[in-house]
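BUG: 3D viewer hangs when loading the predicted structure for this chain

Environment: internal workstation, default settings.
Expected: structure renders.
Actual: progress bar stalls at 90%.

Input used:
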Amino acid sequence: MSLSNSQYEAIEREYERNRDSNRRLLEARRSEVYSAVPAYRELDESVGAICAASARQMLDGDAGARAALREKLADISKRRSILLTQAGFPSDYLDPVYTCADCRDSGYITDESGARTKCRCFRQRELSVRYAQSNIQDIIKRDNFSTLSYEYYQGDDLQRFSLAVEISRDFVENFKKRYRNLFFYGTVGTGKSFLSGCIANELLQAGFSVIYFSASGFFDRLAGYAFDAKSREALQSFYEDIYQCDLLIIDDLGTEMTNSFVTSQLFSCLNERGLRKKSVIISTNLNLEDLRDRYSDRIFSRVTSSFSLCKLTGPDIRIYRKRMKNH
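Structure tokens produced before the viewer hung:
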């Protein structure tokens, strides 16, 4: 399921906006430093003259001119760094600014052989456009570790939530090093989707590709492709995306209309991603008995054996907040 030319052009324009924005930020920082540290500006302005003089020396056949230039530039770089830190600025304050350091906001990475491949950040933009994942941007603005609060929990509920937060943070910190799946389950409104959003936020910022679906949306899309003979190519593309993205989040499992198609597709998804060592996060209001009864022993076995189980309990936080707001 390829993107249209206009969709690719929109992505390219986004990269261009990022480059312009970061360029303006760097220019503003440079003006700030020049104003606060005149000696830094003098060093910057001396580089052009030094390079020009060295170029003339090289043209005249001076064999040591190139090495001398490198030495002079290294000395200037060191002196600039010292001036910055002495003035209270970070030593890298005037380094180039990138939204994605991997591709330097180009969307592509060039390897040693000169081959260009799409960066993780470009891949995520493709996924976001392809599956109308704009909702994930709303989720991560609202649900992130900086807004996390323990005030709604007490006793055993607090202990369970604290453990789930600890597991979630560890999941993020070791995501690149260790394959792991998470299964958030328990009573309604206790933070399961919130923690999924926190994790998505962190991993997206780290440059990993994330696909986030409600269970009903996920299986509806699968069914739409699977039962339409004209959508075979789209179905294969969808399978590859959900099998290959760095993290797949299925939210509110159990809210979909469960049938044999859903059960078989869920198992296939978990099995294939397991074979590829690609992580999955599932959140559900079902308890473990309901999971086994509603789906299959195979799915129950897969979840209980290859997922970290995080049970959350307590009052419905959304209702609690609404009541507090009305008081």
